[in-house]
Amino acid sequence: MTTSPNSPDAGWVLEASVRAAPAADPRWNEQLDSLRSVAQYDGKTQTWCARLGVLDLAGLQKLQVLFDAARTYGTEVRLAPAPVPAAWNGPVFTRDSELDVVLSAQADQGRALGQLPLA
User: Fold this and answer.
1) C-alpha 84: how far from chain center
2) 51 in the Ramachandran plot: left (φ > 0), alpha (ψ -120 to 50) or beta?
3) Dihedral sign, CA of 24, 41, 5, 57?
4) Residues near 31 by Cβ (< 8 Å), separated by ≥ 6?
């Protein structure tokens, strides 16, 4: 994975992002209310982003909120491995985890991770 740190035993986090509804959209405040508790907004890229270091119940609930918002506002969720942020204090995925193996296999097939069928 090119976005993971270079060290073979380095950890990484799963970054889930969803494109924001346009600010002029009357439902902007609805989206803001639903996403601000689970994600951070980046005005430069106009995306909401949540980082996960483990797929536990809380992590799956965050993902569900993002997927629900994407469906409601006509956008999509993108999933990508990312380097561990400097200020990160939570758990991280390791290069030998099952999720890492799955993400690596999918990336090897030449498909963007955010375009994987998740049904």
Assistant:
1) 13
2) beta
3) negative
4) 20, 21, 25, 69, 72, 73
Distance CA 67, CA 65 (A): 6
First to last CA, the chain: 23
Contacting residues for 46 by C-beta, under 8 A, at least 6 apart? 19, 20
Question: pTM for this structure?
Answer: 0.71
* pLDDT value for 38: 94
pLDDT tens figures, 61-97: 999 999 998 898 888 888 888 899 988 998 998 877 6
The span from the CA of 115 to the CA of 78, in Å, is 7
**What is residue 67's three-state secondary structure?**
helix
* Distant-in-sequence, close-in-space partners of 72: CB < 8 Å, separation ≥ 6: 31, 34
Q: Which helix (H) or strand (E) holds 106?
A: helix 98-108
